[in-house]
Specification:
heterodimer, A: alpha+beta, three-stranded antiparallel beta sheet, 6 strands, B: alpha+beta, Immunoglobulin-like, 3 domains, five-stranded antiparallel beta sheet, globular
Chain lengths: ~190, ~375
């Protein structure tokens, strides 16, 4: 008997598989007590984890870090997509790539510079709405794929104030000089 | 370009595409001369003495470049008056078009001829692109002197902000001096300890702000409703809030609007409404403020005006959304046409929940920091300086 993978069983335990896949998995479980046991364990673990809350976890910092990583990951992904292609000899892939090169080459030779479209970066910048966000690390302004963040000094707790006019201020006392610094970021 | 040149270029480009690109982060120490441009006007009362770039670095990560700028500017007061506050305008148009920053240092007392420093810590992220020119531009936006006179282009309305901080500073210095005179060192110690306790206990929200650009035809969330402001009417307030609303949906508040009446005998040119929100558990937070929308507003005595802002604010705490149950507004700042600024008195704050909920003034924060780091003697010496 061929058993489904761990990932499929975990998704089933969480109720996150589509109808067709669920039907085939449930049919398998009716005949396989081993997989049924695994699903039961996963469901119990899931219920346990749902109630678990780590102490002193800075959700804001975590969210900011994840956002930054996703953004950088998308950028990096765009660069490395071509690296996987060169890994091994695959005649069909080579043919497809040669055709693609031919099309790119033709468009390169025939292009009219006056009709050159905006770069993808600019397209993203224009479509995403600028947003200001405060966190323990500082105040960040994001616009498309670019961002500017005025940082709080490490280790200080800044008082933040927000204006509905479109600005955020963070104020802290500098540990070395004892002077107050107020960072302010605003939407234009 | 000839056909052969284009074919050669194409083959090089294809070769680059097929070459696996190492993605390890590459650190580069920044050159201050090419990365940052600092502009002070020729007639500025401040002169730039030095710029330290500290641990500033540029790091390439994948297709993005991350710049960590940790600058310290040393400036000299070359004028004839004591400097009470400085604001620098920070722009990085290639990284963040449509946004601008500023770094201000209020509550200082720099005599003529003396140096002082100002930190500028920025992180910039953008896709890698070939560019020329400086990455960050630092300009002087304003200097406030001890007689409340002002110098600078004031593009950020820093004159108003710094005057407001200075008026608050005078109020709070007077309050702590009075505590010292009336109740001695023990009285002052009690007041400062109470301030430190409030600062430690004050709940703080993380907020995101965006222009209210809901697309035409976009669905309004089913939970959205118009919520009315309740108002704290402080005694002696020159402007009275009459009524106000904002659209609320979960942890988002949009498009606040507040109607006010000038009940003083003088024309007013700026009003700001402080904004408190209460969550479903009854915890109250200082959410922000609703400023006058018209930069050139003049509100004659006895007349009314609307303060409205087309922005959306989302509130969270420790990464979790704060569900808004109710809102309270109060007049937090008024600027008269003659330049005088009104702020709530210390008695007004003491007699309301505001002292507990609002952040202390920059000066109160600084005085409390002196006490906690250097003790009571240093604090009394500081209070006797001016």
């Amino acid at each position: 008997m061929k058993h489904p993978g761990e990932i499929d069983l975990a998704l089933l335990a969480g109720g996150e598989v589509g109808r067709v896949r669920r039907f085939s998995l449930e049919r398998h479980l009716r005949a396989c007590s081993e997989c049924g046991e695994k699903v039961t364990q996963l469901q119990a673990l899931r219920a346990e984890v749902a109630d678990f809350e780590p102490a002193d976890l800075n959700w804001t910092l975590l969210a900011a870090e994840m956002r930054a990583n996703i953004r950088l990951g998308l950028e990096a992904g765009a660069c490395v997509r071509s690296a996987g292609i060169a890994r091994g000899w695959n005649p069909r892939l080579t043919l497809a790539f040669a055709s693609l090169l031919l099309i790119v080459g033709a468009s390169f030779l025939l292009r009219d510079s006056r009709l050159q479209p905006a770069s993808p970066v600019h397209a993203v910048t224009q479509s995403a709405a600028p947003v200001l966000e405060s966190s323990g690390a500082g105040i960040e302004f994001r616009s498309g794929s670019g961002s500017m963040m005025l940082l709080n000094r490490p280790g200080v707790v800044a008082s933040q104030t927000v204006s509905a006019g479109g600005e955020i201020r963070a104020r802290y006392v500098d540990g070395d000089t004892g002077a107050v610094t107020i960072n302010n970021v605003s939407l234009e | 370009m000839s056909l052969w040149n284009k074919l050669f270029g194409l083959s090089i480009a294809s070769g680059l595409l097929l070459t696996p690109v190492p993605l390890a982060a590459q650190d580069t120490v920044l050159d201050p001369a090419s990365s940052v441009k600092i502009d002070l006007p020729a007639d500025s009362p401040l002169t730039l003495i030095s710029t330290s770039m500290g641990e500033s670095r540029a790091t390439a990560r994948g297709g993005a470049i991350v710049l960590d700028l940790h600058m310290a500017l040393t400036l000299r007061n070359g004028g004839f008056k004591h400097v009470r506050g400085v604001t620098l305008l920070i722009t990085a148009q290639e990284f963040a078009p449509g946004g601008k920053g500023s770094v201000a240092r209020p509550s200082i007392d720099v005599p003529p001829g003396q140096n002082f420093s100002l930190p500028v810590d920025i992180r910039l992220v953008r896709p890698v692109q070939q560019t020329g020119g400086p990455l960050v531009r630092v300009q002087l936006d304003g200097v406030l002197f001890d007689d409340l006179s002002f110098y600078g282009p004031n593009k950020l309305n820093s004159q108003r902000a710094m005057t407001f901080w200075e008026v608050e500073a005078q109020r709070d210095r007077a309050y702590f001096k009075q505590a010292l005179q009336a109740r001695g060192e023990n009285g002052l110690r009690q007041e400062i300890l109470a301030s430190l306790a409030r600062q430690a206990d004050r709940p703080q929200l993380d907020v995101s702000v965006s222009r209210n650009g809901r697309a035409v035809g976009a669905a309004v969330p089913a939970t959205e409703h118009m919520a009315q402001f309740a108002f704290l009417n402080l005694p002696n307030t020159p402007v009275k809030p009459v009524e106000g609303w904002a659209a609320i949906s979960g942890n988002e508040a949009r498009s606040p609007r507040v109607e006010v009446i000038n009940q003083s005998g003088k024309p007013v040119r700026y009003v700001e409404i402080g904004w408190l929100v209460k969550d479903k558990q009854g915890q109250e937070y200082a959410a922000g403020s609703v400023p006058a929308s018209e930069p050139a507003m003049v509100l004659p005595a006895g007349h009314g005006a609307s303060l409205l802002q087309d922005t959306a604010l989302k509130f969270s705490r420790a990464g979790r959304p704060i569900e808004i149950e109710s809102m309270t507004g109060f007049v937090s700042q008024v600027e008269f046409a003659d330049g005088h600024v009104w702020v709530p008195s210390r008695q007004d704050l003491n007699a309301s929940p505001l002292l507990r909920i609002l952040a202390p003034s920059p000066e109160e924060q600084r005085l409390a920091d002196i006490y906690s780091k250097k003790g009571l003697t240093a604090l009394t010496t500081e209070l006797s300086r001016y």
